Amino acid sequence: MLMDQKNRDYWEKRQVKREAKAFTTIQDIEKEYKIALEKAKQNINKELSRIGTTYMKDNNLSYHDALKLLKGDEYKVWKKDLHDYMKEYNKLLKTAPLEAKKLYLEIETLSAKSRMSHLDSLRAQVDMEMVKLIFGVEDSAKNALTSVYRDTFIEVTKDLGINAIVSRDKIKTVLDRPWSGANFSQRIWSNTDKLAQTVKQEIVNGMIQGINLQTMAKRVSERFETAKKNDVERLLRTEVNYTLNQATLDGYKEAGIEKYEFSATLDSRTSQICSELHGEVFEIKKIAVGLNYPPMHPRCRSTTIPIVDYENLIRQGREEIGEKDIESNEKEALTNNENKSITKEPVPNTFTMAWAQNDKVEYNEVKKLQKELTTEEIIKKLGGGDQTKGSCSSLAFAYIGNRNGYDVLDFRGGISTEIFATTRNIVEIANLDGIESKVIKRANDYNAVKELLTFVEEKKEYYLETGKHAAIIRIGNRGFEYLELQSETENGFKKLDSSVLKTRFGCQTSYSVGGIKFEKSNVLIDVDSCKNSEEFKNLLGYINTAKDKQNKGEGGYAK
């Protein structure tokens, strides 16, 4: 069954959008990986300089001269054991000082094992730096790939008219599968080991050739720069494409899709193999990654389009999709559900909601307030001690809920706090349908806030996330003000200025490691607009805390 052009165009647009979202997710990991490589390079060159300088200073000879002594076949005087060398040295010290000095260089080289141990130490330093590099990056990359899988699976199944829960075991299986001879962990360790071997060989070659420290350090740096430009991008982008397409495939299987069309829309200009497969139709049960299913090669950007039997979907009681815009369906659903109370088990339409469900965060139904609360009443209701269990961000979202007529408390900790304090999830919430927001990435938090504040209007309230803090802000009698909800005694709106941005929000003028700058997301959300989002209301159930389970107050205990 072939797909008409209208549906093909629809699915291609959806897949392109998903691919762009996936690569946005991995961009921060690329930066982190490159920053880690930069730090490793600097530490290795620092150790190289330290050992090299000490070496030449202690012995007054070059690497090249020392290596001659170490090679064993170019000794100039005697080939005796260390005890005999010392005897000869003591004799020569009185009769032939210059010869004694030459002999002492040989004794130094042999006795303390310092020359060989320095080289071994440097090799070990390379290995140690690489291990340190990988431990951080591997975990971050796995988390990012997990996000790519979850996002893609949820969106694909949603587009196919079904609601499916992401399986943690399935994600683990995808990431652990050696899909092209090795899995992600094995590849990243293999790449790092190859780089370590290359760097160590560069150091040894430099010593043998008598190259000076500056040149040797430059060669080591060049190896790292090559790794940054080639290995990092090739590895991560290939893995993203694999994870994206595996999540898509699992979504197809969940919906009962039996065939797919290979799409090289994004890759046709650079890959002949993908161009040749473009438009070909294959059966799901005959999929072979690298043969008829992407990725086909490193940095592959190809994807697939499902061959959908719409009549069969309708027979199964699913909504026909693809021929009309999903967004119009969602708007219709919001209209139909406008006066309904929030269900106890909401459909996970967002990544944030799906994460909460998969991590088994308790869902506590949010109900409408009996009467509208004043600002002071909401502050009194939510204000807690300095060690309140809820995060600043989830407290701010709880405030938004109350402001829009919903009875929400937030004094719980654990994974719920983590979910609503994670910048990535905050950005996702800001982008929910119906919510008016601004998300900007800047290296300087102060510049970001200055830019965001230009969108703030009088008599309105906004959620602001910047630096390491989140709070409700507004224009008050003192100018810009922020809402403090975590003070033990002084909750309420306070003056917002540069000193507060520094001390309370933890804003920075720049973000960089090893000379590499990176940008951080800063978020501004219109409080009133959140009332238009059914999904935002649903999310409040993962923040809301039952009165008998409050952890409010200093120390996190109820009071």
Fold blueprint:
Layout: H1 5-59, H2 63-71, H3 82-95, H4 97-111, H5 114-159, H6 168-176, H7 184-208, H8 213-255, E1 259-263, H9 272-277, E2 281-283, E3 303-307, H10 310-315, H11 326-336, H12 351-358, E4 367-368, H13 375-382, H14 392-403, E5 406-407, H15 414-421, H16 423-430, E6 437-442, H17 445-453, E7 461-466, E8 469-476, E9 479-484, E10 492-495, H18 498-503, E11 512-513, E12 516-517, E13 520-526, H19 534-540
Antiparallel strand pairs: 1-2, 1-3, 4-5, 6-13, 7-8, 7-13, 8-9, 9-10, 11-12
Helix pairs in contact: 1-5, 1-8, 3-4, 5-7, 5-8, 7-8, 13-14
Distance between the termini: 65 Å
Low-confidence stretches: 66-82, 111-117, 313-343, 553-559
| Category from helices, strands and their pairing | alpha+beta
Quick check: average pLDDT?
74
* Widest sheet, order of strands: 6-13-7-8-9-10
Beta-sheet strand percentage? 5-15%
Count of DSSP-assigned helices: 19
Q: What is the number of strand segments?
A: 13
Major β-sheet profile = 6 strands, antiparallel
What is the radius of gyration computed over CA atoms, rounded to a whole number of angstroms?
31 Å
Overall spatial form: flat
Percent in helix: 40-55%
Protein name: Phage head morphogenesis domain-containing protein
Pfam families: Phage_Mu_F (PF04233)
Domain Phage head morphogenesis: 197-305
Organism: Fusobacterium animalis
